[in-house]
Write a structure and sequence with these properties.
It is built from 16 helices and 22 strands. By secondary structure, it is of the alpha/beta class. The strands form 4 sheets. An 8-stranded parallel sheet has the order 1-2-3-13-14-15-16-17. Strands 4-12-8-9-10-6-7 form a 7-stranded mixed sheet, with helices on one face. Strands 20-19-18-21-22 form a 5-stranded mixed sheet. A hairpin with a 4-residue loop joins strand 8 and strand 9.
Amino acid sequence: MATLGPASREETVLRGLVRAGVDLFRLNLSHGTQEQHRETLRRVRRVATEEGCHLPVVLDLMGPRYRLGQIPDEPRQLKPGQEVVLGTQGEEGQGQDVDLPVEAGILEHLEPSERVLIDGGLIELRVESKRGDRVQARVVNGGPVKTRKGINLPDSALPFKVSEKDRSDIAFAVAEGADYLAASYVGDASHVEAVRGVVTEHGGRIPIIAKIERATAIECLDKITEAADGVMVARGDLGVEVPLYTVPVLQKKIVAAGRLAGKPVIVATQMLESMIEQPRPTRAEATDVANAVFDGADVLMLSGETAAGQFPVLVVETMARIAQEAEEYARDNTPRHTPQPLGHAHARRTWALESAEPALDSEATLEVPDMVSAAAVYAAEQLGVARIVAFSQSGFTARLVARYRPESPIMAFTPDDRVARQLQLVWGVRPFVAEFQVGSLEDIVQVVERKLLEAKLVRPDDRIIILMGHPVRERPLTNLMRVHRIRHL
């Protein structure tokens, strides 16, 4: 996934990124205007049509972000051991004042012994006492303080409210048909539901990706993963809020939680950071990209590297080569295990979030597609089939299959263009849009054969596995697995 910005939003660069290996794009709503993002999104749609591919767009909400207010005579140097007073703008305090904007409304939530981290954690304050709506703290790590620098409060129980900016951006996302929303700074599952509630208010149905970047989110990881449609290991702010040496382990835990719940996971931030200015990554960065593949991530994300860097296309080519090498190694050296079904509790939640169908009356209803998907992966490995084909209105079956990381590529057939785009976020899935105005299983098999042969994804005599709901006209959940040999047309 590539973040689009000044260095990459032009159509020629967009086309180069797609041909270099980009599967989906991100627009950071913290920067730029809605009009700029609208034009960029439409360029992406145009390029996707001309290149013959499905390109989803993730709109990343700013979220409840806190910043310093106006700092007089900046930069103001803070020294270790120095006392400072945190207050609202316009107040005069004793000692060194550091202003917070009135609208932030966070002073009342700070308690003694809690940390206040400024400028990405470079400066650390420790709260000592509160005096009304003013907070006295002591500098632990000093440095220069400037106006509007960001603040992290990893120890504080902060309320979550969808800001007016985010509400406006959500309305924009619904109007423009965004494929995903990324919710920033969520602390628990209720925060995901708050964002989803605003989407519903505006008449939309957009899957929500929860960005795991707060220390409190780690404590609620399983519930957040269950509530969201995907998760992002947002290592930038996460690395500020938790000890830096824990980030690699937390990355593995977050990816594992997503795998267990059958939800896609994005690993993000500083993956090839040096390539913003240099044409080659560091060895450590190349290793970082490979390790994210080994962890089992669905998506690797580029931020400033493609949004503002000097080599946006080259950085995508570099990441693609590293990922391909890592995947080939993992495929040849990872022990295979018999797939274990997802469990209908997780599957029910996934279905409820992703399907436009009415809620199911019985959790046990989902045991059949879950078991059939696991059986398909096992059979594919035993028989050496060329492709696993999943028919799905919502993409649900393809997601179930992808959770088991089969050796055979997954071909997802859906009648919905938007579902096809959304499936680009899921590991190992290639979507096809096809309308099946047919009445028999054999008619469907013929359509599959023709599509796969035209795309040169199979050859005559190859075996494939087909998953679908039968009878077709009733559109049931997946209940049928067929092993089929491609015929000579």
